[in-house]
Amino acid sequence: MNSIKKRILLVILFVTIISIFLVFLFDKNDHISISTIENISSKDIESEKEKRVDQIDLYETYYSINSKTILKTLSNGEVIKIEESLANTDFSKIINEKNLRLSLYDVWLYTETIKLMGKDLEYKDQILYYLESLSSDKGFYRSSTTEGLGLEHSNYLLATKMAIEIYISYGEPIPNAIETKKWLKNLCTELANQEDKDFISLGDYLVMIKNISENNNELNISAEQEYKDLTEYFFENLLVREVKNIQEFNTLIDISKAFDINLTGLDAKFETYMISVQLADGSFPIYGQQGEHSDILTTYLFIKTSNELGITIPNFEKLNVYLSNKIIRIGT
Q: With the C-alpha atoms ordered 305, 306, 309, 310, is the resulting torsion angle positive or negative?
């Protein structure tokens, strides 16, 4: 990918790769977090992106396309531009086991971007081989071949979720699903017993576990006591409604959608916050904090959140130009 900003990339890698997109988005210590695939570490993302040599920035591409899709402003010309850039990119340079800089996040971005554009996935054998190299005998997956196996199990949740989604994208069964299901149950117990639990990190973990469980029958633990205990603890002790930044808004909305919770008054609070941090070009600063530079993942989160709350984003035309300029630079 093109060399870019030194502060953006488990968990959100919320990541770790928005703590683990937002366990990997906005824990400033290690992570950015988005509790869907969007769980990624801002600093980690940026440092990794500087090392990459491929011809297209999938990070910028994926979130720009997603943002314009939500806003319903993706033009035919932009679609053609993206398709040409994808067609001109030699993904074999990225998806290659000899590429020591390859990460699971790269592969996930590739599969999700290609699917978003309605194209057929390629490199199946190479990618499945790579996933196998990241798997553990306990059922979880690492984010790269250089990541150790001795971390707290919560550090592997986002990578495991991404790996499972990639298997599903290729129509493949989940290998060692029995062990992965056991691992998820044990993870619930580990999370429930962790000290210093907080709303954002545990909320993101809980949403990811629920998504994994519901999207694959072999991994469904919704009826297991470990999962019930963790869910009960969260709602009795950690669920908050007074939120003040983008990661908290994102987590609360994801929780409300996953568990069908009715939120009242959140739209007005979010609108006030959104207006206060929006940049002059219509985009939004990293971490959703005043004084920080523009970031496409954060901008995507504001667009996603405003759409889910039914709020119109201010400076819409400027924002659309910002996104269009991102697409113009794809592959250059």
A: negative
pLDDT of residue 244: 83
pTM of this prediction?
0.81
Q: For residue 144, which of 91, 108, 185 has the smallest C-alpha distance?
A: 108
Domains with residue ranges and CATH for the chain: 42-328 (1.50.10.20)
Q: Read off the pLDDT band of 332 (50, 70, 90).
A: low
**HSE of 298 in the Cβ direction (CA atoms, 13 Å)?**
29
Q: Which of 160, 229, 130 is nearest to 11 (CA)?
A: 160
Q: What's phi and psi for 62, nearest 5 deg?
A: -60, -50
- Are the beta carbons of 292 and 262 closer than 8 angstroms? no
Give the bridge partners for 285, in sequence order. Answer: 294
